[in-house]
Amino acid sequence: MDELKEQLFFEPKNGYDRIDTQERLALEDYCRGYIRFLDEARTEREAVALAIQMAEERGFVEYRSDLELKPGLRVYKNIRGKSLLLAVIGKKPLSEGAVFAGAHIDNPRLDLKQMPLYETDEMAYFKTHYYGGIKKYQWVTIPLELHGVVALKSGEVINVSIGHEPDEPKFVITDLLPHLAKDQIQKTLAEGITGEGLNILIGSTPYAGEGKDRVKLAVLSMLNDDYGINEEDFLSAELMAVPAFPVCEIGFDRSLIGGFGHDDRSCAYAQLAALFAVEDPERTCVCILADKEEIGSEGVSGMQSQAFDCFMEDLCAAQNVRLRHCFEKSFCLSCDVSNAFDPLYPEVSEKRNESRVNYGLAILKYTGARGKSGTSDASAEIVAYLRRLFEREGVVWQMAALGKVDQGGGGTIAKYMANRNIDTIDAGVPVLSMHAPFEVVSKFDCYMTYKGILAAYQDSGM
Ligand code: MN
Ligand code: MN
């Protein structure tokens, strides 16, 4: 009976039981690079800038229409500084399709409003409007740093980054002391901290002299000294507060990584690293770093934008290929994080079908909510292709789903790729505390995500 069970049953195994010492060293090495990337790129704009710098160091050039698209050519296209497309031209023409890997580089965070600055009771604050799905109570009493740009009337754009370096000041949203929280603690988690309550403390020293709003004046005077801006300039600013925690290893065994933005920079970095590692690919490999996924992939820099089609159309035109013929034969890994099964909250999960920490790259055939609403639901043939590919290439992976049926749900960029007539499936790193200011992933899963994407890039197709 044991023999028959061995033959017929399917029991997933912990990833660490499936790799050797050499691969353990490789994964540590890979994760050192990822930790640096995550620590440096705190916003989509910073992720784009850093990715371009890394790409140029590796021979990528900005796409121009006069470039001859020879196999091996490495190009990138910067979409308004907020999303990025990179490609390595393959040996086969684009009429044979391309291999896409698409991740997003925006995060849940607190954006400043366009009229953010105010003073009350001799303290100065920024008003915020949260971006993406957050649990508001998680954003109080943690150190925050400020990033973004101020675009001036003159056309000049000023980059802002305050609080990331250890010696720079941070910012914070205060919370009520428990001694006086009798009413607050009766409220639900959704109501205890409100959206309009997320106001960031930014100063308390009054400007010398008499009159009102002296703390606000002191803050503006400092901003004017440092950046040459005044209050009106906030109207055309894009500033965001993100957690000021350094990325770090977690656990006695250092097997996990804690930090802000694993969703979805753990996949974005895996795609970049895989694209950089690609050698003489059969098919053209494209790395998509998209913006606005957390608010529905809208806008010019989101995955629903035609910016992506424009870039691909240019590549296709250079080879006399029609874009729709390329898409029809293409394959896309929509690389986004999945929810890792959390033993502290088992009630939301159906254990057999949830991704688990250290079980490798998580594949989601479908996401969505209720009756699979809002998912592109990849076909069985695509899953079979990945089983074949990953077994051949030694990629440890697992099948995943997003919680119990009717527990909630979510989506990714997958459906927008599939809607373009591209065979698409979700794949990514399982995350604990997703969308929290401090998320946790396993090094093993990050590394296997990289390996999985690289396998897809190097493969000649389904
Ligand atoms: Mn995501
Ligand atoms: Mn997300």
Give the strand line-up of the largest sheet.
Answer: 1-2-3-13-4-14-20-16-18
Note poorly predicted spans.
none
Gross CATH architecture of the largest domain: 3-Layer(aba) Sandwich
Q: What's the mean pLDDT score?
A: 97
Largest sheet: 9 strands, mixed
Query: By CATH's scheme, which homologous superfamily of the largest domain applies?
Result: Zn peptidases
User: If you consult CATH, what is the topology of the largest domain?
Assistant: Aminopeptidase
Helicity, as a percent range: 25-40%
Tally of contiguous helical segments: 11
How does the overall form come out from the CA principal axes?
Answer: globular
Rg calc: 23 Å
**Total separate domains:** 2
Lay out the secondary structure.
Elements: H1 2-8, H2 21-40, H3 44-57, E1 61-62, E2 74-79, E3 83-88, E4 98-104, E5 109-120, E6 123-131, E7 144-151, E8 157-162, H4 189-192, E9 199-203, H5 214-227, E10 237-243, E11 248-250, E12 256-259, H6 262-277, E13 284-290, H7 307-318, H8 323-328, E14 331-335, E15 338-339, E16 361-364, E17 368-369, H9 380-393, E18 397-400, E19 409-410, H10 414-418, E20 423-428, E21 430-431, E22 439-442, H11 443-458
Parallel strand pairs: 1-2, 4-13, 4-14, 14-20, 15-21, 16-18
Antiparallel strand pairs: 2-3, 3-13, 5-6, 5-10, 6-9, 7-8, 7-10, 11-12, 12-22, 16-20, 17-19
Helix pairs in contact: 2-11, 6-11, 9-11
The structure holds manganese (II) ion (2 copies).
